Structure to design on (143 residues):
């Protein structure tokens, strides 16, 4: 019984660390609104914790039953990696988020603040090269 309790506690701790790391990794792409908790967060947290504890218990029991690490890992990964996403996709459909404003969020996140003028210079240089390859030597006239 102690093995199940230790496994469950380790699974919940590991899952909490992974969720926190995922939120921090996705924050630059989706903005500050990503970290807002939904109104039904206690229910979501309870089901998520139940899933973590269930997968950990199944993995521990499978490892003890099969006496092989690979079978225990397969049992642990089966539910969250295969079954849960398929059920969620069947019930909710594909989840798509907008990436509008992504370059600006990445620019604001940079440690070294670079001026925005070089971006315009590079854009102007690319337009000049494109016009030159089309036979135009400048934007206003054709030589």
């Amino acid at each position: 019984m102690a093995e199940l309790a230790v496994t469950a506690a380790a699974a919940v701790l590991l899952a909490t660390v992974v969720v926190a790391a995922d939120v921090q990794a996705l924050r630059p792409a989706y903005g500050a609104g990503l970290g807002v908790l939904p109104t039904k967060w206690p229910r979501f947290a309870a089901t998520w914790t139940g899933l973590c504890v269930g997968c950990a218990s199944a993995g521990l029991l499978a490892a003890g039953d099969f006496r092989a690490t690979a079978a225990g890992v397969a049992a642990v990964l089966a539910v969250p990696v295969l079954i849960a996403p398929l059920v969620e996709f069947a019930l909710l459909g594909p989840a798509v988020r907008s990436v509008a404003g992504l370059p600006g969020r990445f620019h604001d996140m940079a440690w070294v603040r670079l001026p925005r003028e070089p971006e315009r210079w590079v854009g102007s240089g690319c337009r000049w090269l494109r016009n030159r390859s089309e036979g135009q030597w400048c934007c206003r006239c054709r030589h």
Summary: The mean pLDDT is 75. The CA atoms of residues 23 and 36 lie 10 Å apart.
